[in-house]
Design brief:
This protein is mainly alpha-helical and 99 residues long. The chain is built from three helices and no strands. It has one domain: Orthogonal Bundle (Arc Repressor Mutant), CATH 1.10.1220. The chain starts with 13 loop residues before the first helix and ends with a helix.
Length: 99
């Protein structure tokens, strides 16, 4: 694409900006080849409360393990889920590379 990019308009609200980017092609406005990764160390992930049914025996074991580690059991569940997700994702990436 040419080096002439369209000018990004001023928006009166986040909703207006969201609608704009939902319908427009950002490459007409931004040269992504000149972009770089940004680190936002104070950015906290958006959390959503969920409800999950677990056997009482599993909850009791989670609470026992959490007590040993001196952490709330919900936090321990998050750690376990994060570890498993990381394992699964790394296995998926390595298996897709070997194809």
């Amino acid at each position: 694409m040419s080096s002439m990019r369209k000018k990004i308009p001023k928006f009166s609200s986040e909703d207006e900006e969201r609608e704009f980017w939902a319908r427009e092609d950002s490459t007409a406005y931004i040269d992504w080849s000149k972009g770089s990764r940004a680190t936002l160390p104070k950015l906290r992930p958006t959390l959503r409360t969920i409800s999950i049914r677990l056997p009482e025996s599993m909850i009791a074991e989670l609470k026992r393990l959490a007590n040993k580690r001196d952490v709330p059991y919900q936090s321990l569940v998050k750690v376990f889920l994060a570890e498993r997700l990381e394992t699964e994702l790394s296995q998926t990436k390595s298996s897709s590379r070997s194809r």
